[in-house]
Each structure stands twice: as structure tokens, then as C-alpha cells.
Amino acid sequence: MQNFASLVWLFDLDNTLHDARPHVFPHINRAMVEYIRNHLGVDENEATRIRQHYWQLYGATLLGLMRHHGTDPRHFLWHTHQFPDLKRMLVFERGLKAMLRRLPGRKILFSNAPLHYSEAVLELAGVRACFAAVYSVERLRFQPKPAVGGFRHLLHSERLAAHRCILVEDSLANLQTAKQLGMQTVWVSSSTRQPPFVDLRLVSILDLPRHLQRL
User: Which domains does the chain have, with CATH numbers?
Assistant: First the structure.
């Protein structure tokens, strides 16, 4: 039997630990469009096209803006992740904290989101103490998932071998990179698909402890 206490869990944040689809993502998307409109001098339709194009091309709008427009990443992240009432906008499953505490092994947050937002979400969810470290996009040196550079930076900084890590994610592209590096993968999704690079698919993250032996 595998010794799960020796493993390290890498948890994504948005749409993994909480559901960002109803309130958070629409707010961030609007803020990004406004930022692009103001800083690139384009209309709303063009700003929307640019946001979506860079997200599809690079996995993060920020990366495209940095590469093609010289955008200051910290300025962009600060202004696109301001919320009038973040607590009201967050959607969590009851029992998240109890699940994380019950799960054996070390836990690290691994997110493309900025640090101020990541920390705020963890605090509001009451789970910050469950995580030994937080790797936000700044700490990844602005190499967001699914780029392999961010993964390698985390592994090097934490002195971890990839085979000791389990990535828990909603994004297939990010899970594919993890699997290529030798990590185990957990896909949080209601899809009925099971891609070959996914070791375990769960509809709810709360089901993780009772499916450990499938990893």
C-alpha cells in the first residue's frame, strides 16, 4: 500500500477548491477586458478577442500581454483581481476544510492567480492553515500553468521529485503537463471522459479521501 503521508498534494485554486464560474470568473473577465481596453486603446470587442486569444494560446491572458505588449504583470494582476465583496462571491462545498485535514500528506496551493487573491480566498474559506506553501503566479516567476517552467520552479524550490506529487486540477492542459513530468493527476470535473493522462476523475473534490487507493 502506498504511503500517502509521504506524498505532496498540489491543489489548483479556481474551479478546484471553489467554484469560480458563477461570480468570480465573470468579474475577472470583465476586469481584464476593461484593463486591455484602457491600456491598449482598443474597443470592448477587440479587448474581448485579445483576452480570449491569449488565454487559448498561452493558457493565461497575462502571458500574451507580457510577450506582445510589455504589460507589467503585477500592475495587471492587481487591477484585474479587485472584488467589491469577495466573500459573497465565493462558492465552496461544505466540508472542504474537514476533507483537507483528513487527507494525508503535505499540501501546496499551485495557482495561476495572484498572491493577494489566492491568500484572500484561502482565508475566507478557512483553509489557509491546511497549506504548507502558496505558489501564486508571482512565485512561479510569471510562468503560469500549463507551461512546464512553473512546474519545474515549484519542484526545485520545494526540493520535490515529480513522482511524489499529485496535482488536483480542473484544467486538462495543466494535468497533461503534470503527467509528462511524472506526477499523478486528479481531474475535478463532471465530464464522463477519462483522458489517458488522468489517473482519477472526481465530480466533487470532497470525494478525494475515499478514492485514495485508486491512485
Answer: 4-19+92-214 (3.40.50.1000), 24-80 (1.10.150.450)
pLDDT per position as a tens digit, 127-142: 999 999 999 999 999 9
- Decide: 145 and 178 in contact? Cβ < 8 Å: no
Instruction: For 71-129, write each residue's pLDDT tens digit.
Output: 999 999 999 999 999 999 999 999 999 999 999 999 999 999 999 999 999 999 999 99
Q: What is the largest CA-CA distance in the chain?
A: 59
Closest CA to 79 of 46, 37, 35: 35
Least confident span in 54-58, 131-135, 159-163: 54-58
H or E stretch covering 186? strand 184-188
pTM of structure: 0.94
- Sequence-ordered alpha helix ranges (H) in 103-146: 115-125
Q: How many CB atoms lie within 10 A of CB 95?
A: 12
Could you give the residue ranges of the DSSP H alpha helices within 126-181?
A: 148-158, 172-181
Contact residues for 197 (Cβ-Cβ < 8 A; gap 6+):
172, 175, 176, 179, 180, 185
Angle at 119 between CA 117 and CA 124, to 5 degrees: 95
Instruction: Give the rounded distance of the alpha carbon of 205 from its chain centre.
Output: 14
